Structure formats: structure tokens, C-alpha cells
Amino acid sequence: MPSLGELIAPRRMGRDFRWLLASSWTSNVGDGVALAAAPLLIASMTSSPILVAAGAIMQFLPWLLFGLHAGAIADRFDRRRLVMFANAARAVVLAGLCAFLLTGTANIWIVLAVAFLYGTAEVFVDTAGSTLLPMLVKPADLGIGNARLQAGYLVANQFAGPPLGAFLFAAGTAWPFLLEILCVLLAVVLISRMARTPVPPRAADDGAKPHVHTDIAEGLRWLWQNPPVRMLVLIILVFNVTWAAPWGVLVLYATEHLNMGAVGYGALTTASAAGGILATLCFGWLERHVSFATLMRVVLSLEVLMHLAFALTSTGWVALVIMFVFGAYAFIWGTISTTVRQRLVPPELQGRVASVNMVGVFGGMVIGQALGGVIAQFWGLTAPWWFAFVGAALTLLFVWKPISQIVSAKPVSDTQAIETQSNEPQSNEP
Predict the structure, then answer these.
(1) Which H or E run includes 352?
(2) Residue 252: is its pLDDT beyond 80?
(3) Which H or E element spans position 414?
(4) Taking the mean position of all CA atoms in its chain, how far away is CA 66?
(5) How many angstroms separate the Cα of 298 from the Cα of each of 1, 33, 272, 301?
(6) How far is CA 137 from CA 282, 342, 350, in A?
(7) What is the DSSP secondary structure assignment for residue 46, as one 8-state letter?
């Protein structure tokens, strides 16, 4: 019978994958702590739905400003070292927040500024980090690799972290962020133990590199000319707008509409993680017996029903059940969409295409949360759920057929990618 370690990280995937997994899981513990503590900190300073939503917007806004540049940089330099440097920057930003909290000088504007700086560093962590797995494992192992990384996200970020963050916040506002600093620094140490340094193909060239904007344009051009990946990115963008509209004011929805309190708000995230953990146990069977196209359609249908259920309920335990189901299907969607994208994108473009995808993810969140804050301000805390229900349902009707084309697409080989670029019209500029 295989050991627990072999089940979690099979030996065939290598030691580097195990170090990457350990670093990711550790970092997610700290992020999970902040997932509950940060909204609670903002809610303790203001009751305005717009300012509460602004906390999340400030953390995600950097994706719109720096996301594409982060992708180009990840395709130029040592991706592992980029993750290490950006995580260290996150620790410095958190240390500054703790200093303000411990001296009693923190206010809502300082917290929003910290959220923006932290989110800027996170752009580079997530972009460079998302490119490491395809460089460490075979394409056939991408599904299981992404599932393990997603499992760590669920267990640490969604399941264990938020209740701990809510508990530590009750003990003292600085405690959860001090713990997050320790987790982020430990993640730096763990990823530094990777035996080899994955270097993008173009970063190994000795010749002069083109301007970063040229690299960005190359990635955007490849994405535009690849309909399956382009459609996948658009689906993620639109569904994140509808998803984020109510999520931006979830802390107010839980504490005021459902009367669940701070601990109950943390329990919602825990219920979501519990559902995701169940999905991790089933994912291998689902991958072998159910097509990705069918799974994607089922998942997006459940997303529509989830918004409707939250709009109708006013009972805490019902909300916990809904969140459990959400966690299960969200894990499946995240694993499948990431695996499909990574299989279709050439190695030298992984950073840039991943950054466009993440700009869509967080750009959708910024738009959705801004809409959700305004909608809740004028029409109440359940109104964003109704907006999400209608928007998600209409989007699902539009993308139902293209999903099959996304899943059935064949990956573009490195040679084909180079030939395609060489056949494009050349600029007349010197």
C-alpha cells in the first residue's frame, strides 16, 4: 500500500514538485488567516459597503495595472527567484501594517494602501508561481499536480486559515498578520530548496531581449489567435464579474443579513473548503470517467444555482450547506480550467498567457466587487446575489456550446508556435 506522501505527491513527479507543493501550502496558511482577518479589520473601521468592497478591490486592482508586465517578466527571468523575491516583499508590507496596528495609528486609508501594496507583490508571486508546475512535471501529470496544489489551497487557505484568522483577530488585531509574515517567510525558504532552477527558454538566450511591451504584445497576439484559450479566458472574466459582485460584501451579508457574527463568517469559508476537500478525493475518479466538457458545464450550472440560493436564504445553516457545494464545484472548475490552459500553451508563453488569464480573473473581481458594493448600498445586501444569478445564467447560455471546442483543442507545439510567429507580417520599423 503506498504511503501518504506517495499519495499526495507521487515520487514520479520529482523532489522539486514536493518543494513547490510544500511552499505553496505554507504560503496558503498565511493567506487563509488573512482571508478572514483582513475583511474583519476593515469592517471594524467602517460599516460602508463601498469601503468594505474597496478593501478587496485595492488588493486585486494591481492585476489590472501590473499583471501583463508580471507575465512578461516571468517569461524573462528565473521564475523561482521571482517568487522568492515577491514573497519577501509581501512580508515587508505586512510588517508595516503590524507596526501601525501595534502603535494604534492604523486607519481605513492605511489599510487600503497596504492592501494595494500587498496585492502588487502578490501579482508577481501568483504569475511566476503558476508557470513552475508545467516546467516540473509531464503534461499527463498536470491534472494531478494542479489538483494537489488546489487541495493545499483549500485545506490551508479556505479550511484551516480563516477560522484561525478570525480567532486570532478576536485576540488582537495584529496577531493574524504576524502569523502570516511567518508563513510567507517559511514559504520562501521551502521554495529555495528546489534542486534546480527552472529557466524559461527565452531567458536562457544570450542575445539582447526585446522591450517588455514587445513581449506582452507577443503573448496577447498568440492568445487572440488561439480561439480555445481565448474563449476560456473570456468565460473566466465574465463569471468572475458575477461571482465577485456579492462576494465583495460577503462579510456584511454574513454578519448583518444572516446574523452569523465574525466566527460564523469564517465558518462560511470553512464550509467551502470542506466541500473542496471532498472534491479532491473524487477528482481522480471524475477525471477518468467524466469528460472535462461535461464537468465544466455542470460546474457552471451549479454556479448559477448557487447565486439564486444565496439570494433566497436568510438562514445561517442553509448558507453553510450552499458554501459546501460551492467549494466542491469550485475546486473542480479551478483544476480543470488551469490544466486545460497549461496543456495548450507553449512553455515560453506560460507566464504571459497566465498573466492575461489572471488579469481576467482579478479584473472581473474588481469590476464585480465595485458593482456589488454600489448595488448593496442602494438595494440591500441580497441584491448583488440577484445580479449575479441573472448575469451568470445569461453567460452560461452563451458559452454552453464553445466549451466542447475548448476541451477538444490540441496543444500547439513549440515548433508550430515559432512557425506561426515567423509567418506573421514583419514590421517596417528599424
Answers:
(1) helix 350-379
(2) yes
(3) helix 414-422
(4) 16
(5) 34, 31, 18, 5
(6) 22, 11, 14
(7) -
Per-residue confidence (pLDDT) for residue 427, from 0 to 100: 35
Place of cell 492568445: 223
Q: Judge whether residue 175 has pLDDT over 80.
A: yes
Classify residue 224 as exposed, middle or buried by CB count within 10 Å of its CB (0-12, 13-18, 19+). exposed
Contact between residue 279 and residue 332 where contact means Cβ atoms under 8 Å apart? yes
- Which of 115, 397, 112 lies closest to 235, judged by CA? 397
Q: pTM here?
A: 0.70
Joined together, the cell numbers standing for residue 360 give 481576467
> In one letter, which amino acid is 206?
D
Distance, in Å, from the CA atom of 311 to the CA atom of 49, rounded to the nearest integer, reads 17
What would the grid cell of residue 427 be?
514590421
CA–CA separation, 149 vs 27, rounded Å?
A: 11
- 365 contacts 58 by C-beta, under 8 angstroms: no
Residue located via cell numbers 458545464: 297
Number of C-beta neighbours around residue 6 at 10 A: 11
Q: DSSP label at 395?
A: H
- What is d(CA 159, CA 145) in angstroms, rounded to the nearest whole number? 20
What's 51-64 look like in SS3?
HHHHHHHHHHHHHH
Counting every residue, how long is the chain? 430
pLDDT above 70 covers a percentage of the chain that reads 90
Report d(CA 320, CA 294) in Å as an integer. 26
Burial 314-330 (b: 16+ CB within 10 A, else e): eebeebbebbbbbbbbb
Alpha carbon distance 187, 317 (integer Å): 35
Q: What is the pLDDT of residue 364?
A: 84
C-alpha cell at 106: 492604523
Closest CA to 403 of 312, 328, 299: 299
DSSP H helical segments within 225-349, as ranges? 227-247, 250-252, 261-289, 292-312, 316-344
Residues contacting 135, CB < 8 A, separation 6+: 79, 198, 347, 350
Residue 323 to residue 315: CA distance in whole angstroms: 13
DSSP summary character for residue 208:
P
Show the 3-state SS of 262-292. HHHHHHHHHHHHHHHHHHHHHHHHHHHHCCH
Q: Which of 149, 171, 177, 210 is nearest to 24 (CA)?
A: 149
| Residue 430 pLDDT exceeds 50 | no
**Closest CA relative to residue 342, chosen from 59, 144, 89:** 144
Q: If you ran DSSP here, which 8-state letter would residue 207 be given?
A: S
